[in-house]
């Protein structure tokens, strides 16, 4: 009898931890596991705001995948998934290669929602992947260089749309980096504007009033122009049109929302905002051999509201997904997924942060430190104490230079 084939799509938080779990649980020769990802590096999506602003070296954000998987049990394949044939149990990769599976894990992460607003797709920048974030940093640097030639003020107006967690984290890094760039290019910093536009009446919509007040004060103190109750209506190459006036700018960083992956479109799989509805075992109910986790999945069972697309959810789902694949192969009882919310923290630069953990409001340096602890904890899970310590002492990994050059 041929060996069971397990294929995992996407080496983000969900895919990496599922691979590790399967590597740990499967006996030698029990199944073939293949992990497929666009790039041969795993990037820390929750840190991409630092790549976008250039405040963290690439070596700390993009890590070589093969270093963190058990290569005796898991094979890594670099490839971009173009479609999935669910009835034929096949994954199609760009270039035409087909990969057959008996069990599939879909963990391909998010796509950015543009809500059909004109010009966003063409002119705005996305904090979506390592590469898209790196593009933002190169663009920002270029605006400083070009300002020296034409003194066009739109070059030095940097606008972040969305003041949710991702938006304020991007702004928090820009307030650190832009003064450094101004100095490097010998441009007075008072020529630089950082604007944060939010459609809701406050920043961090949905957060406690005290968190909103604190974050608003910090951003104000750092010179950020916060424009709440303001909707972006159109983005042009050198102008952003809002319902509260125009913002002449060549940099709109769009952090206004995410949706699931387009790979479910036209497949008949039930989706909500592009996320596949999954059952309590994290399977697609009509396809019991297909599991879906992280930002791709829409999990509501037993919850008042669907779980948000966060790393915290992906990281809790991944081990359950691994256990349930092994349980299905061995015919043992499956685990129901239960989510335990541990809190959420946004950094507002290196030294400030805000959020709630265990129901308590955290702010300032404690919150910033907590955000770092959460990051180190993940690195510990991924690569053990050596990876965590390497990052703590400023090391990182050597693949990042390769990653920075790779396109796609
Ligand atoms: C700036 C920022 C800050 C955040 N901060 C937090 C936070 O503090 N806490 C929190 O809980 N969440 C946070 N999030 C959200 C969190 O990062 C996501 O929810 C999480 O990354 C989802 O994990 P995932 O495994 O589903 O997908 P991802 O981690 O996005 O991984 C998806 C992987 O699939 C690959 N891929 C995509 N398409 C293809 C394809 N067609 N073929 C092959 N490979 C493909 C990608 O390259 C990537 O490696 C943040 C997000 C951002 C952008």
CATH class of the largest domain: Alpha Beta
Query: What is the domain total for the residues?
Result: 2
Structural class: alpha/beta
Report Rg: 22 Å
The CATH architecture category of the largest domain equals 3-Layer(bba) Sandwich
Shape: globular
Strand order of the largest sheet: 5-2-1-9-23-22
CATH topology label of the largest domain: FAD/NAD(P)-binding domain
Strand content: 15-25%
Main sheet specs = 6 strands, mixed
Number of helices: 9
Bound molecules: flavin-adenine dinucleotide
- What would the average pLDDT be, to the nearest integer? 94
Q: Strand tally, please? A: 27
InterPro entries: FAD/NAD-bd_sf, FAD/NAD-binding_dom, NADH-Q_oxidoreductase
Domain FAD/NAD(P)-binding: 5-318
Pfam family, one: Pyr_redox_2
Family: Belongs to the NADH dehydrogenase family.
